Amino acid sequence: MQADRQAAEKLSKAETQNQVQQAAAAKEAEILKLKSSLEQAELSAKLETQAMQQRYEIQIKDRDEMIDRLKDMKARLSTKMVGETLEQHCETEFNRIRATAFTRAYFEKDNDASTGSKGDYIFKDMDETGTEIVSIMFEMKNESDTTATKKKNEDFFKELDRDRNEKGCEYAVLVSLLEPDNELYNSGIVDVSYRFPKMYVVRPQFFIPIITLLRNAALNSLKYKTELAHVRAQNVDITRFEEQLDTFKNAFGRNYELASTQFQKAMDEIDKSIDHLQKTKKALESSVRNLRLANDKAQDVTIKKLTRNNPTMKAKFEALKDDSEPDDAA
Hints:
- By secondary structure, the chain is of the alpha/beta class.
- The protein has 7 helices and 6 strands.
- The longest helix is centred in the N-terminal third of the chain and has 79 residues, at 2-80.
- It is elongated, with a radius of gyration of 61 Å.
- The protein starts with a helix and ends with a helix.
């Protein structure tokens, strides 16, 4: 019995030890797994940190390069534009290529302030038939570094759009040196049509390119503009014809109304005359009928009828008859 009990205790201890070893092995595996996950997370974090650092360094480098380019551009522009305004600079640049690139173009100061506002310049280009290809309202804005209150480009959008509409221009372009550190406006030609339709913001070096781009784009639609102008001319002719037709119809209608009124009056007078004649006819017919009756009665009168029921007159007529008979015999 004791040997069996000892054997059972050994077996129980062995099983317990085995379970402990299995649990320890499982725990060790879990620890290794967690350790591996932690190492992977640390590695991912390290790689992400390195990538962010590289991106930041690239951004800093790009920013520094952009600042250097802007400084260089500003220096060159300042050197080039010594003694002249931004408007004069743009006008000079345009006139420099006008004879070769824009032979039929109009580019002049907007001096019409009758509406209470005016832009700086108006550009219009025509084809050989005089049909407008493209028109642009320009506004030029320059600001000194010593200016107390710094303006933003968007401060001039609304007024520029109003000037474009009042002067009948298709596009609006703001040539600006404002916000020199703004990366958006320093990137090139900026389309701000999300704020106001057909509006762009450019730096002075893009003044000629924006005109060229808009003019070339408009040339593609020139055929349709020509056809539209032809259709409009036809519509004017049709409108004039319709107006003349309406004038004739209105005059004819008035004359017809007058004639119809006079005709109706004449018809009414005729009806009155007919009615009067009808009454006269009835009166005459009544007179004729009475005369006929009187005649019939006269024809029906005899001495016999007259002396009937009248003994005195009968005796007189018989006496006259008797007196006349001897004379007749003699």
